[in-house]
């Protein structure tokens, strides 16, 4: 990497940002595309968020990502919010354009792209979503927008699954939406796709699974948005049953690529080999 006076800084703000893989992904893409850019992480305190954004404007930062816990909170400090981010109710990507900070969300689209790249179509599918936190919200809304026929939200805290189900129904009246307690999962076996959006099975608790996968037919596609470990026990169990599996690393890389497409206003000309990125991220994760 050749840093000089003209190098553009892109970054991630959140708290905590330790162990984020975003610098590896973005700097890899900058490098292989000979872009004079660098990506860094900044741990930001809640009280400093507004001041940090003002400083970014002064320094001419052209784009940044936002992670936990600021994906919703940041929206009030932005000049404009893109339609998709408004729909998903959260911002993970910000672009500076003509004196304005504009907020976008690439999480939902990143997940949907990982399904499409694996040959899975969402239209008219029955989808079981486990969890009702930030990741689940972005993914469920995007699945609804992408034409799912039915979405069932299961969560440990049932009030949160109820609220998310209500939000989906409110925006997409023609979709059938149900919600329940995570413990009731065995009542919902007739689904095409299962997505784990809980943090159950995430490092260091890698022996845990959110639900027993054996209740589903082996035609059910099993997804997990956790990327640490790359293949969770939930996915390993599904693989043993010959079910098609999709891991969280695909979503993570796709949302980063989509952020870059927003920052650089390009559609096709960022050269990326997802398998190559996955190959070296393996060392950062396992
Ligand atoms: P979050 O907003 O904190 O939500 C966590 C979810 O997990 C909630 O539904 C929570 O249920 C549930 N949960 C946690 N511990 C549980 C337990 N012991 N038993 C039952 N349910 C439990 O987190 P998030 O941002 O949605 O992230 C969730 C996971 O997705 C994390 O592992 C994160 O790394 C991953 N993620 C990956 C990507 C990607 O690009 N691949 C993007 C976003 C997130 P309650 O509501 O009952 O607490």
What does this entry look like structurally?
The structure is a single chain. With 286 residues, the chain is of the alpha/beta class. 36% of the residues lie in helices and 20% in strands. The protein has 9 helices and 12 strands. The protein has helices at 22-32, 49-59, 83-88, 107-117, 134-145, 158-171, 233-240, 248-264, 274-285; strands at 8-14, 37-43, 63-66, 80-81, 93-97, 100-104, 126-130, 150-155, 176-181, 193-196, 221-224, 245-246. The strands form 2 sheets. The protein has a 6-stranded mixed β-sheet with strand order 2-1-3-5-6-4. Strands 9-8-7-10-11-12 form a 6-stranded parallel β-sheet, with helices on both faces. α5 links the parallel β7 and β8. α1 (22-32) packs across α8 (248-264), α4 packs across α5 (134-145) and α4 (107-117) packs across α8. The longest helix has 17 residues, at 248-264. Bound molecules: NADP nicotinamide-adenine-dinucleotide phosphate. Residues 68, 107, 131-136, 155-157, 160, 182, 197-200, 202, 225-227, 248, 251-252, 255 line the site of NADP nicotinamide-adenine-dinucleotide phosphate.
């Amino acid at each position: 990497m050749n840093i000089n006076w003209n190098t553009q800084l892109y970054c991630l703000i959140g708290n905590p940002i330790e162990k984020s893989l975003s610098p590896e992904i973005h700097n890899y893409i900058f490098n292989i595309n000979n872009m004079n850019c660098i990506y860094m992480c900044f741990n930001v305190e809640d009280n400093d968020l507004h001041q940090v954004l003002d400083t970014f404007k002064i320094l001419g930062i052209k784009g940044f990502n936002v992670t936990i816990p600021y994906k919703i909170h940041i929206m009030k400090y932005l000049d404009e919010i893109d339609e998709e981010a408004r729909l998903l109710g959260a911002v993970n990507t910000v672009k500076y354009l003509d004196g304005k900070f504009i907020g976008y969300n690439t999480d939902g689209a990143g997940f949907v792209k990982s399904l499409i790249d694996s040959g899975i179509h969402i239209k008219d599918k029955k989808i079981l979503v486990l969890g009702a936190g930030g990741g689940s919200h972005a993914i469920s809304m995007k699945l609804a927008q992408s034409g799912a026929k039915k979405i069932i939200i299961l969560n440990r805290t049932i009030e949160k699954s109820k609220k998310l189900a209500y939000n989906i129904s409110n925006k997409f009246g023609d979709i059938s939406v149900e919600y329940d307690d995570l413990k009731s999962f065995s009542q919902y076996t007739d689904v095409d796709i299962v997505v784990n959006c809980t943090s159950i099975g995430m490092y260091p608790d890698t022996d845990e699974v959110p639900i027993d996968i054996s209740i589903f037919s082996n035609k059910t596609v099993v997804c997990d948005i956790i990327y640490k470990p790359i293949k969770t026990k939930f996915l390993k169990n599904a693989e043993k049953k010959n079910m098609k599996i999709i891991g969280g690393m695909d979503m993570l890389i796709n949302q980063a690529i989509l952020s870059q497409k927003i920052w650089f206003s390009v559609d096709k000309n960022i050269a990326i080999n997802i398998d190559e990125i996955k190959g070296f991220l393996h060392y950062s994760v396992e």
